[in-house]
Design brief:
The protein has one domain: Sandwich (Immunoglobulin-like), CATH 2.60.40. The protein is 0% helix and 60% strand. The chain is built from no helices and eight strands.
Length: 100
């Protein structure tokens, strides 16, 4: 799994997982260890054919810390089983690079 800055306003998350069945991706972005809504989903996260894709974009947040381009960012990502939404796993992914 990787999470990387793309340009100055997007984080792209990509990877793969070998699951025993169907799964649903859920994630949130943390800035300096705190969940923030300054980075919101710009496309629905997906798990398809073993591949995981998701993307967030910087927006004006209302909850959590204000966006700080110099902060440390992590993505907390879970893959939930279907039809029962129990997590197969949850991982912390450091975001590579810097905005811009």
């Amino acid at each position: 799994m990787t999470a990387k800055w793309k340009g100055e306003d997007r984080i792209v998350i990509e990877g793969s997982a070998d699951l025993p069945g169907l799964g649903t991706v859920n994630y949130w972005v943390c800035q300096d260890g705190q969940a923030t809504d300054s980075l919101q989903r710009s496309q629905n996260p997906e798990y398809k054919d073993g591949k995981i894709k998701a993307e967030s974009k910087v927006v004006e947040g209302r909850v959590g810390p204000a966006f700080d381009a110099n902060a440390h960012f992590d993505v907390m990502l879970s893959i939930l089983g279907q039809p029962v939404q129990v997590a197969y796993f949850t991982i912390k992914i450091p975001v590579e690079g810097n905005p811009g």
